[in-house]
Amino acid sequence: MNPDPIRMKRKVQQLGSSTLGVTVPASWARHHGIEKGDDLIMQRDESGGSLLLVPEDPTTTDEEATVDVDSFDADAIERAVVSQYVLGRQLIHISASESLTREERDAVFSAERRLMGLGIVEEQDTEITVRCSIAPTDFELGTLLGRLCRTEGAMRRDAITALRNGDAAAAERVLDRESQVQKLFYLFLRIVFATYRNPRLNRAVGLDTGFPLIGYRSVAQDIVLMADVAADIALLVTDNDVGALDEATSAHIGALADALDTASSATRDAILTPDYERTRDARQALDAVEAHVEKVNDYLLEERPEPLLILQRAVDTLGRSTRHIHDTLEVATHLAFREHPDLVISE
């Protein structure tokens, strides 16, 4: 049986009176061109329970990839290009044994439009090559996460305004901005993956260590799901003949929207500037949202304003945002405890 290429056991050896050592796999050393006397970077995790070993200069031999389209349909080709972009490839070749079909070319063009910094550099009968012009160090993750939050927040506010005013044209504009959220999200994943592979990028992307990466990834996913909520609200307006809401109903929906905006902003601040006081403020703001949801539902049950079914679906849909904000707040709390370990005493 071949040894597991991912999980390997090494025996600790005594090298001196107070020094212990372990060997590294020969295949790993060859892949990175490591020789005797070269430096390696050893990084501890936050708890000190594990060590991450990386070369001083990680290899970049896999910056190119080729997507063989012969066994793919158009949707699979687009997904393959997106995945290679996220994995950090600089050049992606989309290749066919015979001339690329119109559907296959359109799939590549569609992926290009969805991904920030990606452009076609060469197009032939049997191959298209796309290149990403963005380096992992071009953006700090906190800055990018803030842009994601602000874009989602603008979509949500505009979608609720379109619902209150019965404005289908405004709702369509909300839907048009979904692609911007996706672009930011895929770029975010690209930088996160690059930093996983090369922890020396931590400071370049605005992190002291790699600890927040998993949390940031979870937060970014929640932001995308909240943008989906905004899109669903917009669809309720575009797919139904919804007129402007009466003044009392509009006021209730507006109050819920304001509470959501406050909770989302407070949670974003707690993520970007980890602090336990900020998480407590965000939690109070989230409690206020839940109280507003209950108040609006009671109002709809008692007054039964029109269009009642659409309004009930809208409030239920906005409730999904509350759950996503809650999940993000949990990440913010973990980051806050990391920044202020004195708040918890380990036995």
Topology-level CATH name of the largest domain: Methane Monooxygenase Hydroxylase, Chain G, domain 1
Q: Judging by the overall fold, what is the CATH architecture of the largest domain? A: Up-down Bundle
Number of E-type strands: 8
Mean pLDDT: 85
Give an account of the 3D structure:
- There is one protein chain.
- The strands form three sheets. A four-stranded mixed β-sheet has the order 5-6-8-7, covered by helices on one side. A two-stranded antiparallel ribbon has the order 1-2. A two-stranded antiparallel sheet has the order 3-4.
- The protein is built from ten helices and eight strands.
- Helix 8 runs antiparallel to helix 9.
- It is of the alpha+beta class and 347 residues long.
- A hairpin with a 5-residue loop joins strand 1 and strand 2.
State the main characteristics.
single chain, 347 residues, alpha+beta, Pemi-like Protein 1, Chain: D, Ribosomal Protein S8, Chain: A, domain 1, Methane Monooxygenase Hydroxylase, Chain G, domain 1, 3 domains, four-stranded mixed β-sheet, two-stranded antiparallel sheet, 10 helices, 8 strands, 57% helix, 10% strand
